[in-house]
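Structure ticket #2291
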Amino acid sequence: MPQVRSRCQRRGPVGESVLASGVARVGGVLYCEGVALERIADEVGTPTYVYSAAVIRDRYARLDAALSAVPHRIHYTLKANSNRAVLRVLRHMNAGVDVVSGGELYRALKAGFVGADVLFGGVGKTEVELRQALEAGVLLINVESEAELRLLDRIAGELGVVAPMGIRVNPEVSVDSAHRYIKTGEKGAKFGVPLDEVLAVARVAATLPNIDLLALDMHIGSQLFRVDGYVDGTDRLIDLVDQLRREGIDTLMYLDIGGGLGVSYDAEESPSLELFAESIVPRVQRTGLTLLMEPGRFIVGNAGILLTRVLYRKRTGGRDFLIGDAGMTELLRPSHYDAYHRIEAVHAAHAQMTADVVGPVCESGDFLALDRTMDEANAGDLLAVHDVGAYGYVMASNYNTRPRGAEVLVDGDQFAVVTARERYEDLVHLERDDPDWRDG
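Resolution: structure written out below.
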């Protein structure tokens, strides 16, 4: 079996050995851990998402170790990648989970998590979802408005339970992030309770009979490479903790600082976990509260590859196009966020080209890369699109009535299909040939 682990290592910003992506070239061919990507494509087909279990474990273990000086729990955010095989890897690492819908709660429970492992967030939780969360016995429900708080109190009363809840605070801090869509903690954002209203909402929570106020929570954004936003936001949460305690509200048990740690897609330098811990841990220690974090992309982003086969190479308007069997339906980030993903040939190429890498979808916005200098490729060649472990399959769609691709997990020298490729019949199984017509 080819040994690729050493080729996947790089030195991290704090000197520790970091498993960069789980992918390395052996004899001119790309491998994920000990499995040739070509073999996966031959046996499973394309497009296919491939995840490295080793990278997932590495990211979780590094963050867990960085926070070891303070009581803490890492709750992986399902919205980044909710595949149940990925969730099972993390459950075996003793992770908790963060969910933002009833569907994600269902997935988490199916993956073996129990209610006490779950944080339930989201700006628009329905009455049904709040009821499901309480029935599952989740650790916390993070509310985002006084109206939601009062609804939660009513539902908890109907169920005869006390709702464990936190307040998601909008700390109103500005951060440097790759795209305005992933800034979530600035003034005027739709998320969270405005900073100047938090104390009032907390006072209401303290008076409601079916509510137990246990946490303050924030999430300031995604793809964050500096710690100053976390420091500013954490300081604002701690100031609120102090004010609540002075008012005699002393039920808090948790301080939840969200997720958002950045991952490298191109030349970005991943954030130093040592600096992050040095900045955050002493602050949380002073409160005596348990620290909660909700990383998603940081855990799985670099763990994923999208395999796509070139269907055609053509030249038009003075430009070269590589038309593959994967496009915006498989990876929306380039079109939606102007995101960069490294692309290389699975078999080593001895020449380079500049091309637009596009998909088969009937949209001009269907592309994976534009004007990209990359390995020379032709029809039939297999390409690897890197760093798709987060916001890849979970944002995939059936636009143009395209079946979604398969998902594969690699663990050492073994691999398994963990999500089957959709079939045409899967695309129509919810539609009704003989609908039940009702009078208006």
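Closing remark: The CA atoms of residues 171 and 233 lie 6 Å apart.
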